[in-house]
Amino acid sequence: MDNCCGLLTDQKEPVPLKSIEVQLEVKDHVATVVSTLNYENKEDKPLEAVFVFPLPGDAAVCHFSAQIAETHIVAEVKEKQQAQEEYDDALSSGQQAFLLEESDQSPDIFSLSVGSLPPGESASIRLEYVTELAVEADDGLRFCLPAVLNPRYQPQGSQGPSVQVTSVPASLVPYSLSFSARVSSPHPISKVESSCSLEPLQYLNTDQTQATVKLAAGHKFDRDVELLIYYKDAHQPTAVVEAGQASAKPGSLMGDPVVMVSLYPEFHQSVMSSLASCGEFVFLMDRSGSMGCPMNNSKPQETRISSARDTLLLLLKSLPMGCYFNIYSFGSTFEHIFPTSVEYNEKTMEEALKKVEKMEDDLGGTEILQPLEHIYSQPCIPKQPRQLFVFTDGEVGNTKEITGLVKKNAGSHRCFSFGIGEGASSALINGMAKEGGGHAQFITGTDRMQPKVMQSLRFALQPAVEDISVSWDLPQGVSATILSPPITAIFQGQRSLIYAQLARQSSEATDGSVTVKYSLAGHPSQNQLHFNLKPAEDSGLIVHRLAARTVIRSLESEQRTDGEQQDEEMKKKVVELSVQSGVSSSFTAFIAVNKDGGKAVQGPLVRRNIPTPLYGVPMMAMACSYSAPMACLAMQDLSSYAKRMDYLSCDVELSDCQSIHESRNMLSNEEEDPLPEFLPRHKDPLLQLVSLQKASGCWLLDADLAAILKKTSKEVEKAKPASVNNEVWASILALIWLHGFKMDAKEEWELLTLKAASWIKAQNDRCKALPSCGASNVLSEPNFLLAVSSRNVRPTRDRRFHTLYDPPNGLCENQPNRATLRKSVSPRESSEFTQRDCCLNPGDRPTPPWAPPLATKFYTALVDFDFALSHAHLMIFAKCL
Known about the structure:
23 helices; alpha+beta; von Willebrand factor A domain-containing protein 5A-like; 4 domains; disordered N terminus
């Protein structure tokens, strides 16, 4: 091998895969991906190259072909065992063959075998799939091209063979990636963002409904390629009708028209604001070794497990009083904080937080099945709907067992899943949420975990949608057969997809409608969409293939829940539909054999495993022991992988790793007020403030709060109006600080501030009959909004404030509304109102003419307090009565 050339593996073997070219076409919320893999054999022997790689778990792989010199071979979909036998027969006879197959255990892993590539010859493999784009919390559409495949942990006793992956650190991946995207939509494209470096967005027309974007050169395989696409006025209900395939049998899925309906339910604001005050919240946290990996390379000190701890803090502080909760953590074994779920109060919350702060990535492998079985074995608490939150980096090999268990117990809970870090299994994360009637989120790149998790908590606190039904109003002679599984969950702003096969006879009518009815918080609701039955042009059977994928996944799921023995009848249906539609399944594979003339390939066949990128950390950190970042590689449970990676020695002693870890957590030498015992981990002032909040929602007026506000205890107490309750004053100050300094993190603290406002209101209700009560004295007005703003702030004294009293509307958003102000002031005052009147110098302390006396008193106290503000708008409200 000394005379070999080209790219090499870690064993100095040539790698036949040289480059990957990816072309993405997005039409509204559907993506078509074409990947071209270019191989070249520079050895003197014929090669078999095997490449195991990830794809989105909900992708419909619908095309596979090979180009060898002038010969173009299009693969066929066949039953998997038959395809494997044909592939082996072709190799044994010296023919060239290509095999693409989906993993038996996880639909997001594929294996591509390129057989009998002669010396000096090149081959291009073309792979095509279609997929829907998920809607993110900020209304962006998320496309993810998985470029990282981490080793999947296979628990002992799991069904089926493990997934064999040859992986190397991202810096050693021996092939290149190019990526380009074309986006088109009926709505203008506002922007395209990515965690990877992109070339500037290029618009193709004046109305900006078409654009192209490319991945910048030199992509490093340390992350998936993720695009976030934003449309203006997006997420409108749509229906696309696609004509059947001319060559397919009428009455079959591919022969009849298929309609794809996209609905975006909008709930009434009264329902959205009435968050549940009950429920059983069970949090399941991954503590396997791989959770010690950094969240991203730009912040290596922030590991997955540390981010998960911070997220649990926010979750626990945001839970409503009177609910029930428990926290499980798992690795090779599992633990739980309480024997059974307990009622949420100050004592149980503090006990849980102390244990959460001690959680590390020290439980070994990723065996999620056992803790799930234990959770489901616990009886549900009457009138407390169970909500399960699962946090994992998704590096498991028994995906189908896990999603099957969730589906089996779907009637007793809702499951919200979170994929942490690069390479998390989309099949696992999406599968658990789909089968559990919840919502899935992925935290990758520079994403913060907290806002995404808090959005899911909002979903969990919303009333469950019940009695969902779908009805069609179609012309005479036209009928619809729904292909999608029944809709089990509907969330505000999230897309609901329906696929239906249309059987039609001759009819002059061209319009139809679909109606989704449901009950929300006891109120009947419905969403209706009218659409044209005329088929769309040049759709390329995208809708049919997505529909076929939906049916195939549903059938495969039924097999898992019917028992250990596979239902042969169901398998037969899957194979038949997979072959008919050309869409892959776990029971079929794509096979292509070059049977054209020419001599058979001579000589022994050499197998080459193409390495896939492994998300990890710098080499020095990778050399740490099991409990340190070495666990990122999950090598302790994959001995064969460890042997392939033996050049990564473990020379660094654990003490060295510990000293590095300790140096990252050293506190500054500046003197600070003492903080609670669970606080030192949190350098973020937001988390420090959140950690001080009580389970009831209030804060205490103490030195810890003063330190976060950058004040002394004496300054905090001196500014307090004499008759005001200490806890009320502390809570008001904490909420003002959040609105002033952390508006960019509003999604993270919004729920806990609602709880605080409810607590303040409760104090007022309790104190109405007591004139001496502090809460009553401060909050006796019917509805008031105290708004404090700062513009162009300079150090210390250049601070400006304004107070707004708004009885008719109660709560004001972000900017002072001039129309709202006019409701609260006289005509003369309204006409004389200017921005300068709103921005008052605290040294002058004038009284705004529209402010009621008590609000003015409170305003004056805040001016005296002299906050060191730095953000443009700072608000706090208390809604009374």
